[in-house]
Amino acid sequence: MTTKKKPKVYLTRKLPDAVETRMRELFEAELNIDDVPRTADELAAAMQSAEVLVPTVTDRIDAALIERAGPQLKLIAGFSNGTDHIDVDAAARKGITVTNTPGVLTEDTADMTMALILAVPRRLAEGARVLTDRPGEWAGWSPTWMLGRRLSGKRIGIVGMGRIGTAVARRAKAFGLSIHYHNRKRVSPETEDALEATYWDSLDQMLARVDIISINCPSTPGTYHLISARRLALLQPSAFIVNTARGDIIDEPALINILRAGKIAGAGLDVFSNEPAVNPKLIKLANEGKVVLLPHMSSATIEGRIEMGDKVIINIRAFIDGHRPPNRVLPGR
Ligand code: DGY
């Protein structure tokens, strides 16, 4: 009896134990137990011998790196929903298939988006800090202290009405917000009806008319600085902006400038232009209570990470068995 050789699979980061255990059963898996992010040279070396690379959003798999891959590397099975960190076109040119893990992060990301939508106008982080950072300062309830802004009755403008945007809209509707959205394509009439959503063909016009903006589109060359200085200037002074998608969709220095100038009311950010570095001016704004910052943790639930791992395994299995992996990312998108 001959046993089929297990494919060599290289994991760039530590994954949940259950995922790693399954990977080791099925594949010749090289793990990253210490979870130290790999350098470009370490990734290039791995891509010289592995048949499958499993990168995460912290690995930049660009054209130069893909060019250095050995001929045995046939699959990049991303442990992520977003694929902005992988040059999918360069991979296709080299005959490498790319997959991702869509769907399983939707509800978790939408929950955290909603948490930021609540946290910023209702001054959640600021209030919590009064008790933990300045104990003794709280003099008790006061009719005029720590007043935020009501959510119910306001308008949310969702930029990107895909899976996550729609899940945010469902939650926002339950909180009494009216739903407005801008998307490349209008969603189905059934979805629009269920959400009582208003479609805005013009992003500019929507931005000027809503109270809360939620960024939920993917990062692509077309959405780079989509929320530019010019567009930020369209927002109402009472507007809040929340971003749980990718930092580069907003012109971050321009956002900092209008926040510092008091030209919008606040921001909730889970993602940044230059992660893991966070602009010190944003941290100062957070200390002043004008923004709430989270360290890219919108999708961070153990259930979500295990489901991401399951998807990666299914994609690898399908591919090595000669089938089309279910979550193939097509080039040229
Ligand atoms: C993804 O997978 O794209 C998420 O941003 C990770 O949290």
Secondary structure tally, helices: 13
DSSP, total strands: 12
Roughly how much helix do the residues carry, as a percent range? 25-40%
Biggest sheet: strands, sense, closure? 7 strands, parallel
**Arithmetic mean pLDDT:** 97
- Write the CATH architecture name of the largest domain: 3-Layer(aba) Sandwich
Percentage of β-strand residues = 5-15%
Query: What is the CATH class designation of the largest domain?
Result: Alpha Beta
- Name every ligand kind in the structure: (2R)-2,3-dihydroxypropanoic acid
Number of domains: 2
Q: Uncertain segments of ≥5 residues (pLDDT<50)? A: none
Radius of gyration, whole Å: 22 Å
Principal-axes shape call: globular
Separation of the first and last Cα atoms: 45 Å
Q: Report strand order across the widest sheet.
A: 8-7-6-9-10-11-12
CATH topology of the largest domain: Rossmann fold
Q: Write the H/E string, N to C.
A: EHEHEHEHEHHEHEHEHEHEHEHEH
Structural class, from secondary structure content? alpha/beta
- What is the CATH superfamily of the largest domain? NAD(P)-binding Rossmann-like Domain
Descriptive notes:
This protein is an alpha/beta fold. It has two domains: 8-103 and 302-320, Rossmann fold (3-Layer(aba) Sandwich), CATH 3.40.50.720; 106-293, 3-Layer(aba) Sandwich (Rossmann fold). It contains 13 helices and twelve strands. It has helices spanning 17-26, 40-49, 63-67, 88-93, 106-119, 124-133, 163-174, 189-195, 203-209, 229-232, 252-260, 280-287, 302-320, and strands spanning 8-11, 28-30, 52-54, 75-77, 97-99, 155-159, 178-182, 198-199, 212-215, 240-243, 266-269, 291-293. The strands form two sheets. The chain has a seven-stranded parallel beta sheet, sandwiched between helices. β11, α12 (280-287) and β12 (291-293) form a beta-alpha-beta unit. The radius of gyration is 22 Å and the shape is globular. The protein binds (2R)-2,3-dihydroxypropanoic acid. The site of (2R)-2,3-dihydroxypropanoic acid has 6 residues, from loops.
